[in-house]
Amino acid sequence: MSDFSYPVGDLVEGWETRPWPEPVSLEGRYVRVAPLSSAQYSDLYAAVCGPHDAELWTYRPIPMPTSLQDLWMHLAGLVDAPDVVPFAFVPKEGERAGRASGVAGYCAINPAHGRIEVGGVLFGPALARTRAATEAIHLLMRHAFDTLGYRRFEWKLDSLNEPSRRAAERLGFGYEGRFRNHMVVKGRNRDTDWFAVTAEDWPRVRERHERWLAPDNFDDGHQRSPLRAGFEG
Predict the structure, then answer these.
(1) Integer Cα distance of 116 and 104 in angstroms
(2) Which residues contact 76 (CB under 8 A, 6 or more apart)?
(3) How far apart are CA 37 and CA 6, in angstroms?
(4) 3-21 burial by CB neighbour count: b if 16+ within 10 A, else e?
(5) Which of 31, 67, 75, 118 is the most buried (most CB within 10 A)?
(6) Rounded Cα–Cα distance for residues 103 and 34 (Å)
(7) Which tens digit of pLDDT belongs to each residue from 150-189?
(8) How far apart are CA 105 and CA 42, in angstroms?
């Protein structure tokens, strides 16, 4: 019996404010997620600022840096930001094994309500569309849900960013709506689409991630069953 005159949400039994995420290292089969530091900036410059990489920066808040110093300043700002916990992705296989080849960070962190976002996701061409890239996001999700006890993991994107949309859907994020006129980025309007996985979704999403990432799902590095198929129907 409710003590309220109007409908209210379910009681969250035993809820307590969750811890703020620390810059920890997360080890996977195919990738290491490491706290972002200046020791990785040179590798990241080579990975994401090549002569054909400008498209990678289309939806980011700054144009592609044209020098290591420019990228250094951008990444150092993320490391120093009080509301972001940034990471570098270091693949364990492929042409860039052992060298940082992508970045992302925890942001929009709200411990009181158990909300957290992965933002600023940037994969270099050698890392994009690999099992190491998928595992990198999986490790961040697993840490947020299973270790830190967050209730909601968000993915937000420019509504025109189709590669990011496909990635979110493939990873099991559910579409929740569009914030129109949400930002002005590089002088242009940005409508923002919101996606999320909740704590209730996570066991199903985690199981399908783990099944896809299992070594027996790959033949000479090529997937036998696609991850996207696991979320249809």
Answers:
(1) 13
(2) 38
(3) 50
(4) eeeeeeeeeeeeeeebeeb
(5) 31
(6) 9
(7) 999 999 999 999 999 999 999 999 999 999 999 999 999 9
(8) 19
